[in-house]
Amino acid sequence: MFPAAICKGVYIVPLLSWYNNEFDKNDRRPDPTIFDPLCRWPMDEKAQVWKYLLKLNEAHLGRTYNGTVISCAHFLPLPCLPFEETPKAAKAMGCEDIEDQIFQLRSKAHVYGHSLVRAAEAHGGVITSTTPMCSLALKMCEKLRQHSSAFSMAKRALYMKRKHLLRHAARMSS
Questions:
Q1: Structural domain of residue 70, as residue ranges?
Q2: What is the pTM of this model?
Q3: Is 95 exposed, middle or buried (0-12, 13-18, 19+ CB in 10 A)?
Q4: Which residues, 6+ apart, have CB-to-CB distance to 157 below 8 Å?
Q5: pLDDT in tens, 146-164
Q6: Which residue has the higher pLDDT, 31 or 59?
Q7: Is the pLDDT reported for residue 20 higher than 80?
């Protein structure tokens, strides 16, 4: 994964990231819950993975980008950004050190994922934005539902998937 110029004077810089428990402002202590049971790391998941991935970004932070930088990462860079507030969700939601790297890049905009809450906000001169794919699909189905009953079935399936994801997140965090 490398930075790329997408047109003259505009660069996309992907940032590798992982969550850490310090993102939870109410309780910064590590939690014994395994949030991602299918992920296997050759290092301590709670204390080392996020540091390792951020370290991999350093090669791209020192480069000069002549133009506008748009950064992106899977996890949230700030705990003040909206996300679904299930118990313990903040412990697996983001990493504040991503914000430091966004500022090092002088990014004008940052696109992130992992949250099921659609948002676009400005923080420290950087526009942050996320649009969960299930939110987009649900809106598309809503607009097109009058054209076909198939869209109603697809909408129902997406609602069920979202409900399942939220239930799974709640189970993982309890």
A1: 4-131
A2: 0.74
A3: buried
A4: none
A5: 565 555 666 677 667 777 6
A6: 59
A7: yes
Q: Is 103 exposed, middle or buried (0-12, 13-18, 19+ CB in 10 A)?
A: middle
Task: Please provide the size of the chain in residues.
Answer: 174
Whether residues 66 and 99 fall in one domain: yes
Residues 12 and 60 grouped into a single domain: yes
Are both 38 and 106 inside the same structural domain? yes
Beta bridge partners of 129: 111, 120
Q: Is 95 found in the same domain as 27?
A: yes
* Residue 159 and residue 115 share a domain: no
Q: Which of 68, 78, 117, 130 minimizes the C-alpha distance to 101?
A: 78
144, 120: one domain: no
120 and 144 share one domain:
no
Write out pLDDT tens, residues 69-107: 999 999 999 999 999 878 788 888 999 999 999 999 999
